[in-house]
Amino acid sequence: MKEKELSCVNGFFAVLVILALLGSGAYLISLELALPMIAGILACVIGFALLTGLTIVQPNQANVVTFFGRYLGVIRKSGFYLAVPFSTRKRVSLRVRNFNSAKLKVNDVNGNPIEIAAVVVFSVVDSAKALFEVDEYETFVEIQSETALRHVASKYPYDQPDGTGFSLRANTEEIAVELTAELQNRLSIAGVKVIESRLTHLAYSTEIASAMLQRQQAEAIIAAREKIVDGAVTMVQMAIERLQKDNVVDLDDERKAAMINNLLVAVVSDRSAQPVINTSTLY
């Protein structure tokens, strides 16, 4: 079922017609003559029937009109109108709304339990689908949003230690785009347009949070040590090359090894190196 516009009469003009019908009907009834009384009663009945069709449409709101179970159309333009008498008019908000999901516990692609939540910004673009294709479209949006969030979260790891590939923590923009597309595919049946979706919470589950924190700390220490070792080796190479270039000292292999050992210990050590003064020869 698709949304279609319903043609309506201006409400203020309709009020004038209704008042005229009721006034003329009352006048004809007051004449107490057979034919005028019948005409007056008919005018009053028509006037009261037209009263049931008066409706007000607020800005960014749609009134879906049905007549004894038959869908007639929708009134989107705000104002005061006369619709079909005795029809049922249901209001559907077209305003942009937010849905904040609860914190969901999901297993990522590696099987690690994580906590994740998202905010979904959406609006109704087809009021007929929102009312007739699904039961309570707002609840439908909530359930499908959580389902899509679980599906997307289970496709990627929480983090990639080596920095390669997609991860939930490092690729939030790409994850948001995929989540929006997934939601739009699921919610199009309800006439809902997904404007944006973003992750609002992402963390390891409490039962493994401490272990993952230790792993991250260990990875940071290893990375820092690798950087320190690389720098220390470069400094030792530069020092030996400079000494040999300037002919400051002539070092054999054994003395080079001793110097390299001392320099590496001094640079790589966590604590400041304590100098040892040798008052004799090296041997």
TrEMBL record:
Domain Band span(s) in chain numbering? 52-216
Q: Which UniProt keywords apply?
A: Membrane, Transmembrane, Transmembrane helix
Residues passing through the membrane, by range: 12-29, 35-57
Task: Read off the InterPro entries from this record.
Answer: Band_7, Band_7/SPFH_dom_sf
**Known Gene3D superfamilies for this protein?**
Band 7 domain
Q: Which domain of life is it from?
A: Bacteria
Return the SUPFAM superfamilies for the record. Answer: Band 7/SPFH domain
Q: Name one Pfam family in it.
A: Band_7
Q: What name appears for this protein in its UniProt entry?
A: SPFH domain-containing protein
